[in-house]
Amino acid sequence: MAAVGTQGGDEDQGDTRLPEDVYLGRWLAITAVLFAASALAFALKLRRVRRAAHADEERPAPGNDAP
After folding, report:
1. What number is the average pLDDT over the span 31-42?
2. What DSSP character marks residue 59?
3. Dihedral of CA 7/9/11/13: which sign?
4. Which candidate, 30, 8, 27, 31, places its Cα nearest to that of 19?
5. Whole-angstrom distance, CA of residue 60 vs CA of residue 66
6. For 3-30, how does the pLDDT look when each residue is reduced to its tens digit (9 = 90+)?
7. Residues in Cβ contact with 66 at an 8 Å cutoff, skipping those fewer than 6 apart
8. What letter does residue 10 receive in the DSSP assignment?
9. How far is Cα of residue 44 from the mean position of the Cα atoms in its chain?
């Protein structure tokens, strides 16, 4: 079994038949996509919370209705 981060030979390719240097690029791409998805989800939630807070500020306080 090859150690993580080592450059193995052809015998270390296993069932995938891909060289180990391919995995770094793919791992970075997958990590970037997941980070972007997380940032988007956070931005959408933050926008929703801010809109809800803004809507609460615009409502009159209970009992202060105009006649």
Report:
1. 98
2. S
3. positive
4. 8
5. 9
6. 555 555 555 556 777 777 888 889 999 9
7. 60
8. G
9. 12
pLDDT of residue 55: 82
In terms of Cβ atoms closer than 10 Å to its own Cβ (0-12, 13-18, 19+), residue 20 is middle
How far is the C-alpha of 11 from the C-alpha of 39, rounded, in Å? 40
Global pTM value: 0.57
| 3-class secondary structure, 1 | coil
Distance between CA atoms of 2 and 60, rounded to whole angstroms? 67
Residue type, 67: P
Has residue 37 got a pLDDT over 80?
A: yes
Q: What is the mean pLDDT of the chain?
A: 79
The continuous run of DSSP H or E covering 43 comes out as helix 21-58
